[in-house]
Amino acid sequence: MLERIESRANTIGGGLTIRRALPNMRRRLVGAWCFLDHAGPLEFPPGDGLRVGPHPHIGLQTFTWMIEGAVVHRDSLGNEQLITPGQVNLMTAGGGISHSEDSAAPQSEHARLHAVQLWIALPDAQRHRAPSFQNYPDLPLIESGGFSVRVLAGSALGRSSPAEVFSPLVGVDLSAPADAHLALPLTNSFEHAALVLEGEADVGGEKLAPGTLLYVGTGRDSIDISCVGAARLILIGGAPFHEEILLWWNFVARRPAEIEQATREWNAGQRFGNVRGSPSAPLVAPNPAGLGLRATAPKLPSL
Ligand code: MN
Question: Which parts of 202-271 fold into alpha helices (H)?
Fold first, then answer.
């Protein structure tokens, strides 16, 4: 089963417009992957950059794959981590953490940015765990069929990512400087989705350009991926996640009361600690009873 899903434009910190492929009206999850933003590639005007001030998360992992640019992550555990191209930042929010993300370029330079940020819903048994943060500078790289395949999460082509995840899933980045073709082995029980980040690619017979997510249902042992000329894409997947999640603002929970409590506590300066050193102002959690809920999560229960 193949299903084409269009990303929506959305605005994040600093007024940056990104493409949001997950969640959407058609698919809320691919495995436990529950959020997918594609930012760039772009160059900011001098002095501008990514500016996402301190904000909280619960119940999820944030998974940042950096392709171009440099961003400083700061969090309430005291971590200050520069993420550069080829690296993954993985933050496990568990019961609660706060962080900020700011471009690292000096004021006089043009900051560049090309990145993907994903969220992974934590299973119920793990979603209240202690928060943690890890930077992964060395991820497996395999050359196959003209593609450079980077294993971001889980296993692919016999190699495994060191990224610590809590449900069966996979994430790979495939890039090629010219024509390439690969029959990529898949885990049969996983569902998958592909998103082109640059150029154009053919995935399972579907032509894709940036902005279109191709959902691939379970029951496949492999998928043909090819490109004519340079291209880059990601493929994510995982065991279908059968827990009913409630995703609202930066929170993943199960019940509206949990969202309401997290909103109250963040706006009161409780529970989520302090992020030190960010040049950006903290974000205010919107009222869960407001329009935001219907605008961002139309299929979720009303709070
Ligand atoms: Mn965040």
Answer: 256-267
